[in-house]
Amino acid sequence: MTDHPEVPTFSTAADFFAQALAIEVEASERYTMLADTMEVHNNREVAEIFRKMAHIESLHRDEIARRAEGANVGDLPVRFSWLGPDGPEATDLHDTHYLMSAHHALLLARHNEQRAAAYFAAIAATSSDPDIRAFAQEMADDEAEHVKWVDEWLKKFPPPPEGWHEDPDPPVFSD
Ligand code: ZN
User: Does this model's pTM top 0.85?
Assistant: First the structure.
């Protein structure tokens, strides 16, 4: 399975900013959705975590939008969206049972933070534009930091007991 986006190539800086913007918009929206879901399930602590992450990703989004100013990114196609840890076919992100557990919501976040980090790192490693390389590296470092945060929260929210839903083999990440 492909669990990170293909290594992107950019013909222009505008194309890079369009993709980067899409990543951060998606992340901010997903974290808001996860926070809402956790609130519905009365998990205020994790809801709070996700609200903070939504805010952090929205700051990235605003920073990218600021840097992209003048570059016409609005009309460019974007190719990024959150995927479930089991791969694109296995998880319907709108299937709420998947998100009822804080643990699984965190796994979903971790998976996509990892994808974003890999995406930006690939750009940092391959872009011919030094400004884009530097900025992409900054973004890659930030997203890698988010992965570490999620790992810490996962320690606090271990997998729910067997049989919490019908999935006999829930995804597990460990280091
Ligand atoms: Zn992030």
Answer: no
